[in-house]
Amino acid sequence: MEKAETPLQQVHATIAKVCKIARRKADDVTLIAVSKTHAADAIVPLLEQGQRHFGENRVQEAQGKWPALRERYPDMTLHLIGQLQSNKAEDAVQLFDCIHSLDRPSLVTALAKAFDKVGRKVPCFVQVDVGEEPQKGGCPVAELPALLDQVRAAEIPLAGLMCIPPFEIEPAPFFAFLDKLARDHGLDGRSMGMSGDYETAIMLGATHIRVGTALFGERG
Ligand SMILES: *Cc1c(COP(=O)(O)O)cnc(C)c1O
């Protein structure tokens, strides 16, 4: 009898299937396992299966569990996918290898300062408020060109654009819109797609998908 597939294997199989249809290389899509609310004992099995990109949405929660895990798996990459307060920028730069939620001028300033102080720079995605939902964070679409200019002037490594489309509406138009914005601004990275919609996001050009529930089950 064949061994049952793990959730990680299932998600990889889906990514491979969609990439084939989209005529894309599966290697061009980075799977970020979103481990927020989950303890180390739920995360270690994924690390043991070779998963190396993880996402957290709170600095403080990540500080509590990732330093010990990183010691055991030093080749891993930790992504901050949640909103970042300027006064946590330095902590974030110390712990995270990539930030997906750069969304306002004051945070550009805070991150540039944190990079200087910590002595390293990490790539950042600029989050765009595609659904006009300011509570989720994200730069208003009209302010994106000015923010990107500021990011470039501050010499912050710019990975691309990120979005969280409104829930309970077909996400495809929002993904297509983010893809267009990224193209218009000459950016390669598109951080978009979660457990419920990552296939659609890959079809529409996602380079980084952020998947929690499909890998870990429902959050408590
Ligand atoms: C929690 C979260 C995810 C993962 O959501 P799932 O539906 O569990 O896959 C992705 N992106 C962000 C920004 C999140 O906060």
TrEMBL record:
UniProt keyword terms in alphabetical order: Pyridoxal phosphate
Matching Gene3D superfamilies: Alanine racemase
Residues where N6-(pyridoxal phosphate)lysine is found: K36
Record function comment: Pyridoxal 5'-phosphate (PLP)-binding protein, which is involved in PLP homeostasis.
Name of the protein: Pyridoxal phosphate homeostasis protein
Cofactor requirements of the protein: pyridoxal 5'-phosphate
GO molecular function: pyridoxal phosphate binding
Alphabetized InterPro entries for the sequence: Ala_racemase_N (IPR001608), PLP-binding_barrel (IPR029066), PyrdxlP_homeostasis (IPR011078)
Domain of life assignment: Bacteria
Source organism per UniProt: Erythrobacter mangrovi
Domain Alanine racemase N-terminal: 19-218
Family, similarity comment: Belongs to the pyridoxal phosphate-binding protein YggS/PROSC family.
